[in-house]
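Let's practice the habit of predicting before peeking. Look at the sequence and jot down your guess about where helices and strands might fall. Then scroll down.
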Amino acid sequence: MVAAAAAAAPLSSRSFDDGPVLVKQRFPLGPLTIGVFTYVLLIVLLLVQVSVDDMTRFYSEYSDPRASLSSSSLRWVQYPTMDTNETEQLMDRWRALESNECHGVGTGSIRLLGPVGPVASRNGSVADTMRLVAGPAHEIVWESIGDDGRRRCVGGDFFEADLSGPRWKSRPPVLDHDDGTYTMTVQVHPEFAGARFHLNVTLLFDNLHGLALRPKSRARLTQVLSLTIDYVRPPPPPSTGKPWTSPVGLPELKLCTRADFGRKHWAGRWTRDDEFECPIDEAGRYDCLDPELDCPRPWCRGPVAKLESSGWVYSAHCAFRIFRAEEAWRCLNGTWIFAWGDSNMIDSIGNLLRFVLGLNDTPARLDRRMDRVFRWPSDERLSVRITSVFNGSHNVSKNWEGLFSLHDEDYRSYLRSFFADGKLPDFMIMNSGQHDGLYWRSADSFLIDGVQHALRFWKEIWQGMGSSKLPHLIYRTTVASAGRHRPEPNNPEKMEFYNHLIVDQLMRLDLPNLHIVDSYDPTFPWHYGNRHSDGVHYGRTPSKSKWVDGQIGHQYFVDLMLVHILLNSMCAA
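Done guessing? Here is the structure:
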């Protein structure tokens, strides 16, 4: 929430009907027939002109007059970010809050500033239904209103935005202008038009209170906006009058390459081809799709059934490949993966072994420290070494340290020992965040004694390897804490803030083989409850038993999707 978003798209609440349909029909020629034909032709031409005029009015009311609905001009929404000085700007904003005159005033509600047309009812109150054209990005702007009834004079409010349809789920980016106003950008691909969507915005924290060490008492958890959106297909362009030959009005998503993992923050979406839910089986799994069913393009490639997600798949600025076992083994064969992270990382390794590599004897919980060579039962010539070191604490049996674990000399020596013999991993996957949220007393201490101290340690190790031998480094951002954990110390606002600091500091090292995998964006659309997470873990082993939300079984496909995203990064290298 620190940079300019896409340009606003004017909206309207006016409803419309489909344009006239012209039907060609053969008539026997003759004087009377020709006369009738001429008369009909004049009427048709008049109707066409009226139709074009109506479409022109439609465009002026429904779409951005600065851009036409063509794949050459439409762009996918991107997460607002800054290319330079992100750390300094984030920290300046946090440090300046207490000196601001309205810092002590809480946010009680919001007031919509625009576009007024689609959301204002006759009596001036907010309507609950609007109609938008699928394809273009549309902006909704509001200002925060303090508990004193006045507009807030500073930013720092954390809004959770959710856009959900029968076959679509996404987190619309919200841009904080740091003056009390916010811009949310919503976008849906034309393929999903013709359906009813629900847009909900919840104020989780105001005044950056989510960054506090004990923020729960300051949580707002207030729904400030709820709209129903009917997304419709774009009409024929008025310049040609010709109908769309394809539902694609946005650039087609290409399969991810190495370059695609250089983006700091992602703004993707979850989609599916049909509306259905797989039943849970005796093992707690949701495995009901045809194993040969291909991913619907352009949203992914490969067998979508491997996700066990009832068809849901995540895509970002590019599309991801879903790997079959043989493809994954041939990609990883002979490599060494070194993973340093929290329990989410350990769960992902277990899901890689169990669901992707086909090692069915994988235990439900892996050890916090592990160094093993695994072989494919179908062809034992194929193998992969996986080393996993827990970083929630320097003590393998404890928690709540995160990056502070690296202040322990014995723990640092243990990590160095893996690289002492000159052998180097092919891939290093790293993450930290959940435990940091509960340990560090302030963002300052997290940045200086956490992030910068950790990067000095790892930079020393990488320099010892030599620039020509550096492993392929993947930094995986922290997931969005879910359900009952949303107001806790490791809440989504703090995790997003910490993610931005770590990623920005990492990218300043200018490492040649650095990839960013944003785990925060794929988890966010599912973080409102506990169906897909116990609050902090999205990849717990399936089980047909009572889950934390009181239901039998739980969904685990979000983490499984993240596993395939990691494979996309490794195999692209």
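How did you do? The domain at 258-572 is CATH 3.40.50.1110 (Rossmann fold).
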